[in-house]
């Protein structure tokens, strides 16, 4: 263990404790996105289902990137449990709005992680989070745009599906992404 990982009086650093918590948040987000994908899949909206199945896998990868970082820095990854997820929805807008709120919440969590790393002079931790900060800008933007498209679709989900298939069909490039613990799906 390095000096930044544990202190005699406090155990793990604040940054490492928050990062362990974030692993749980990322796995919870993965499960939530899977539930959203299944809802769309069950309603014969395969484009939207694909977007959210892919998001589920990305969140899983984010958790495993964090686990890899912890392992590489001598912190035992005591994997937290998955939090509760929502599964009872009345319409597509509700699901996309939930996804946007989730991404906004994760953005705030990542910012708090970056602040903790900076406050503790954990420069490698701060550098590690740079990719996640950039990723969150993209995630919030994508979900904001998707919510706007759903709203403009005025209930015509086939128009939304057409837009999704045209604009969100690529998987994106995870260039510069941290390594994962175990295989990545990207």
Automatic annotation (TrEMBL):
Claim: Metal-binding is one of the keywords in the record: yes
Annotated signal peptide: none
Keyword annotations from UniProtKB, A to Z: Iron, Iron storage, Metal-binding, Oxidoreductase
Gene3D superfamilies, per database record: 1.20.1260.10
Superkingdom of the organism of origin: Bacteria
PROSITE patterns, sorted: FERRITIN_LIKE
InterPro entries referenced in this protein's UniProt entry, alphabetically: Ferritin, Ferritin-like, Ferritin-like_diiron, Ferritin-like_SF, Ferritin_DPS_dom, Ferritin_prok
A Pfam family of this chain: Ferritin
Location of the Ferritin-like diiron domain: 9-154
Claim: Membrane is one of the keywords in the record: no
Protein name, per record: Ferritin
């Amino acid at each position: 263990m390095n000096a930044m990982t544990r202190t005699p009086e406090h155990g793990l650093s604040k940054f490492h404790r928050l990062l362990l918590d974030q692993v749980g948040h990322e796995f919870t987000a993965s499960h939530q996105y899977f539930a959203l994908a299944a809802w769309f899949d069950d309603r014969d909206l395969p484009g939207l289902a694909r977007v959210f199945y892919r998001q589920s896998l990305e969140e899983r990868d984010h958790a495993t990137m964090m686990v890899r970082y912890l392992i590489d820095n001598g912190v035992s990854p005591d994997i937290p449990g998955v939090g509760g997820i929502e599964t009872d929805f009345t319409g597509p807008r509700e699901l996309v709005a939930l996804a946007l709120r989730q991404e906004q919440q994760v953005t705030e969590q990542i910012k708090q992680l970056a602040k903790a790393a900076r406050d503790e002079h954990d420069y490698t931790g701060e550098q590690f989070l740079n990719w996640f900060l950039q990723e969150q800008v993209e995630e919030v933007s994508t979900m904001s745009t998707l919510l706007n498209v759903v709203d403009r679709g005025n209930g015509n989900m086939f128009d939304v599906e057409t837009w999704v298939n045209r604009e969100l069909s690529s998987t994106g490039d995870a260039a510069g992404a941290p390594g994962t613990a175990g295989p990545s799906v990207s």
